[in-house]
Amino acid sequence: MGASRSRTENPEIQDLSDQTGFSSEQIRILHRRFRQLSGDEETISKENLEKIQALDKNPIRNQIIEAFFDKRNQKDGKVGSFEEIGFEQFVKVMSHFRPPNLKMTDEDKEAMRREKLRFLFNMHDTDNDGTITLDEYRKVVEELLSKSGAIGPDVAKAISDAAMLEVASINMPHMEPDDFYEGITFEHFEQILKGLEMESRMNIRFLDVDTSTMHCGKSQ
After folding, report:
1. 68 in a domain, yes or no?
2. Contact of 87 with 159, CB cutoff 8 Å
3. Which of these, 88, 90, 152, 219, is most buried using a 10 Å CB contact count?
4. Is 149 a member of any domain?
5. Model confidence at 191: pLDDT above 70
6. 48 has a pLDDT exceeding 80
7. Residue 98 is part of a domain; what is its CATH number?
8. Global pTM?
9. In the chain, where does DSSP find H-type helix?
10. Between the CA atoms of 99, 138, 180 and 67, what dihedral angle is there, to the nearest 10 degrees?
11. What is the number of domains present in the chain?
12. Looking at the domain assignment, is residue 170 inside a domain?
């Protein structure tokens, strides 16, 4: 009876909790941060996120911001980009950063890992054609290296070119120098990151919300 009443008191929060794995309290925390970012408006734009100082020195700043407005990250099969997003859409993107909890089955953890990989893949697949082209991959690697400040742009480009060729050789081991490589598919992407443990490492702090403590499911 009490549980039933709880569901009817906050049906929107409960529904969002069911969809994302965040507890009601976690959703309230996210809502407060959302209102701060939006200036107490009902939606936020890319301009709102661009004002976050903690993002200024992030080498993939643009990709992170774009990810919040990418319809592919809403888990409803749609593609394209939003001009602005509301709180529900904001929370659905944030849910990609939540870590697993001890109660999750191996099957659940594998599903979460695949979901996180798909999110990362979408960040790199900037033209939304289902593949990460070598040019897109090179651009991301070059951007990561050059903005680290440790090496110059020419060296960064040389390393990114080498990384690009390495990825091509992994996925197309018999490719000749003049062959055209269409790009990294999601299946290739999974293979590249096969040994990387990311279920608990992929969290987010630049919004002043530490998702490393926001475990999937109800409050611990």
Report:
1. yes
2. no
3. 90
4. no
5. yes
6. yes
7. 1.10.238.10
8. 0.73
9. 2-9, 11-20, 24-38, 46-50, 61-68, 87-94, 106-124, 134-146, 153-171, 186-192
10. 40
11. 1
12. no
